[in-house]
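Hi W., the 2-phosphoglycolic acid complex you wanted:
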Amino acid sequence: MRRKIIAANWKMNMTLNESDSYLDTFLLEVAEEKRVDIVLVPPFTTLARVSERLNKIQNVKLGAQNMHWEMGGAFTGEISAPMIRELFARYVIVGHSERRALFGETDEIVNRKARAAHEASLKPIVCIGETLAERDADKVEQVLETQLRGSLAGLDAKTLTDTVLAYEPVWAIGTGRTATPGQAQAAHAFIRKVLAEISDTATAEKVRIQYGGSVKPGNTAELMSQPDIDGALVGGASLVARDFAEIIKITAAL
Ligand code: PGA
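Structure:
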C-alpha cells in the first residue's frame, strides 16, 4: 500500500507573519493526523522559520519549491540542495509547470535537479503535465511519456522509489478547472505503466503519484479515492490553513 502524501505549494505567497499565523491554526488542526504524509512547501524566505516551528512536530515535513542542480558556486540568486537540506527539509519540488513555462526549465534541467536532490538526500517531487492544446490534440500520453523519460533519466530503482511524481495538467492549475477523477486516474495509470517500462513493475507500484490542479476540500474525496492517485499537490487551497487541513483530513479518512 502506498501511503498518501499531501503537499502545500505556497508558491510566491506568505510573509513571515502570515506563515506564523497560518501555522498557529494549521498545526492544531492536524496535530493528531498520522495516516497521511503532510508536507509544507513555503517560499525560501520563510523556510527557516517554518522549519523552526516544525522542530518538534513529527507528522509535518518541510519542502522547498525549487533548487539549483549544482551543490554551490557562482550562481547568483540560486539556492542549492545542501542549503535546503540544512534547514531539515526532506522534499523539493522540481519542474513545476510554472518553472517550465516561465523560467525555461526543460526535462534535462529537471533531470539534473532531481539527481542533485537525491545526492543531497532530498526527495524530489517531479512535476509533469500537459497543456490544454496538447490535450485537445490528443497528445497527453506522448507528452507525459517524454517528460517522464527525460526528467527521470538515470534514476535507479531505489532513487525512483524515493521520488514523488506530481501529475498536474497545466489547464487545471489555478484555473478552478479540475481534471475529472476519470481523466486523472487514466493519466496516473499511464504514468505508472511508463514507470514500469523505465524501471520494473515492483518499483512502479511503489512510486507515489500526486494529482495537482485546483484541488480543494470539495473535490478531494473523489480524486483521492482513485486507485493510482496517491496524494495531492495543492496550490491555492493550501494558502488557507483550514482548507488545507480539511483536504488532509478528508484524504486520511478514505
Ligand atoms: P492549484 O495549484 O491548486 O492552485 O491549482 C497546484 C500547483 O500548481 O501545484
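The two ends are 13 Å apart (CA to CA).

W.
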